[in-house]
């Protein structure tokens, strides 16, 4: 049985009311504006942190922000009106891939035209660096300043000749004068590039490259190239990933100030650990062996999972984060001694770390702390955190503290004997209400996107919206999720639509059998790839009573006649991803819910943005019409101008409210406390 909830002791008398009907101050409006996210941490020349902030309440604007000059002060917007810092390279982009800072100079990718601009911190007039091609057809990401040749080196994705298979390379852009310049290609020939990183001590560059059909976490290579006197890449050598007998995916290369190359790879153990390249002997040395993940799948550009400590990184210490058993830890690795010491900080999930002036900045969250940036000061030895202060927070949740349901990390059996998968379970909780003694709560199963991604058990008002109204919710890390090593991640290879579906159903069944939830009121929801898993659960299993799919993943809806037509709808980055996850033509057909509408037995609500370039909106329309024609209760909401992943506060609010009312009306057997006008449900209203 579930342990007593942390808030349960003490407090006033609770009113008894049906689960799902409880009144809560965590409104959908509060959730929609609490969705600020941060992307990319960079320390400017004055020692202050600069980052990109995404703001749903401003229509999803991506703004560069600078840390306040004084502790406790308000952060300052750097990006002027009319600009937004966001790259569309590989469609998903990535905030830290959209800008770089050197001294007081910022170079950033502007969302509307995708051109690179140069701006001085404190000045509000960015100047273009790259030509105007008449539209966002050339995209730039993951750039760095080149100290040797006064230029900006960046990943360039060129859509001018073919938008479905753009040419990607590493290019250099002049930044010395005030004119715009055609970029100069430095490295080309591979399908994809990331992490061009320049040695500050010598004229050379490291980078990561990979080619279809691989995703960067399947198989990639780390290269080093040497610059000629003119700045061209002459000699080059493969450091990791070139041995065909060794499957690995190196990532995150970084040069120390002395010209030592560090990186992360998962050779042999299947866990991403930190390595160093010994140039003289041309061998790579593992600095610390640990069955934990020191990096994560590269969906977006510019991740930073470790940083060098001390001025000019003279301490021989690296601060890094790793994930193990559903939790992040931060520690200091002394790469000379081979020792590792863990720091005690209040984050249970850490996504980025950068080194500052006498401090480190850590982006993270926990079950009671929303996504935040913390400034951490260390003792002289660099092994103890002496001060931890929040520089930025995605939302102020202090007024909701007493309403929070804290996650329980659970391990549940899969359909394979002896095998387990993982999830975070949130029991219903509200300080003013309790459920009737003869009733179990309804359950909402949440399936994350990717599918190579991970639910992290951190404070998310989206979750608390449900739990504070009397729902139980479980975030499932089905086989194929990241955070548990390569072997766990590869459970999904050739098995998407099978393993994820089985694990979500097994998790729900486990929670019913352990007496925590009502087996007659099991619902499921998911976004993107999670939307596919949701539809597949409804098509191929009888576990759930209703579902909600948000911009569900593309391949699922194809009545497969020709795999090339499927590939044509997928952008280049993911062109072969579904092939790897699904397999052959027959598997595509057998796992596509659209082909098995006759097996659906329960209500479904669908949401999609009409500006989605990852999953064409007509695919959701197709499944909607098929379910409607079958006579099952169904509803569809489409949003003008919304991309893959809703950015506007009003869309986020409306989606949450309508999903909850839909479940309440069709499965819940209770009246919601909120005043929400439900949309029309076909075959029901």
Automatic annotation (TrEMBL):
InterPro entries: 6-blade_b-propeller_TolB-like (IPR011042), AB_hydrolase_fold (IPR029058), Peptidase_S9_cat (IPR001375), Xaa-Pro_dipeptidyl-ppase/CocE (IPR050585)
Domain of life, per lineage: Eukaryota
GO biological process terms on file: proteolysis
A Pfam family this chain is assigned to: Peptidase_S9
GO MF annotation, one: serine-type peptidase activity
The species this protein was found in: Eragrostis curvula
UniProt-recorded name of the protein: Peptidase S9 prolyl oligopeptidase catalytic domain-containing protein
UniProt cross-references to PANTHER family, sorted A to Z: OS06G0215400 PROTEIN (PTHR43056:SF11), PEPTIDASE S9 PROLYL OLIGOPEPTIDASE (PTHR43056)
Domain Peptidase S9 prolyl oligopeptidase catalytic: 460-668
Coiled-coil ranges (or none): none
